[in-house]
Design a protein that fits this description.
Number of helices: 5
Strand order of the largest sheet: 1-2-3-4-5
Largest sheet: 5 strands, mixed
CATH superfamily: STAS domain
Order of helices and strands: EEHEHEHEHH
CATH topology: Transcription Regulator spoIIAA
Helix content: 40-55%
Distance between the termini: 32 Å
Radius of gyration: 13 Å
CATH class: Alpha Beta
C-alpha cells in the first residue's frame, strides 16, 4: 500500500493505493497520522478509490487511526468504499461506527458542522 496526501482546508485527505495488509506501509501511514495530530490536524478522509484489497491487519490499522483521532476530538471519514474493502467494513461492522461517502467532496463537507463548532 502507498498513499499520497492533500489538504482541503482543515481536513487532510489520504489517497490510498494498492492493498492494505499491515506491514511497513501501514506503519508509515500511522506515523504520518500521529505527526498530523501533533500539529493539531484532527479531521481525516481516507480515499479508497484505488484500494483493491484489505485484510484484518489493515482493518486493525484503520481502527487504530480512528481511535487516535477520536481521542483528540477528531474523526475520520471514508470515500469510495467498494469491493473487498466495503465487504470487510461490513463483516467487521466497522461501517456502523464510521461514516462513508461516495465522493471525497461529500466526505470533506460532512465535517462542516464539527469544524464550525471547533
Amino acid at each position: 500500500m502507498e498513499f499520497t496526501e492533500e489538504s482541503s482546508g482543515t481536513v487532510m485527505i489520504f489517497h490510498l493505493h494498492g492493498k492494505i495488509m499491515g506491514g511497513l506501509e501501514t506503519q508509515t501511514l500511522c506515523h504520518r497520522l500521529h505527526d498530523l495530530l501533533a500539529a493539531n490536524q484532527r479531521f481525516l478522509v481516507m480515499d479508497f478509490q484505488n484500494v483493491q484489497w484489505i485484510n484484518s491487519s489493515g482493518i486493525g490499522a484503520i481502527v487504530a487511526c480512528l481511535n487516535a483521532l477520536r481521542e483528540r476530538g477528531g474523526d475520520i471519514r471514508f470515500a469510495h468504499l467498494q469491493g473487498s474493502p466495503l465487504h470487510y467494513f461490513h463483516i467487521t461492522k466497522l461501517e456502523t461506527v464510521t461514516q462513508s461517502y461516495g465522493t471525497i467532496e461529500e466526505a470533506v463537507q460532512s465535517f462542516a458542522a464539527g469544524l464550525l463548532a471547533a
